[in-house]
Amino acid sequence: MVVTAPNLLLSDDELDLINAYWRAANYLSVGQIYLSDNPLRAEPLSEAHVSVDGLGSRAAMLHQKLADARLAARRYTRDFGEDQPEIVNWTWDPKF
Prior knowledge:
- By secondary structure, the chain is mostly helical.
- Helices cover 55% and strands 0% of the residues.
- The chain has a domain of 34 residues.
- It starts with 11 loop residues before the first helix and ends in an 8-residue tail after the last helix.
């Protein structure tokens, strides 16, 4: 059964604004990782501005750790029918 809510649909202008926002946010986040200087630069981007040394192996290791943790959580939920204890009993650390 498909339920539609016509009053919740976005106009073309609203979709364009959301698209522009996400493109800008992605540009800034990638710029913070890969650019050696300010991503909001006045001059055109050149190869000299890009810094990728050392990021590849660290990013791959983090990606693998996250994938392993996700699989472990899914396995625990499948076997025990609930979230892992460290997730269920989690509280925000007051230091932060």
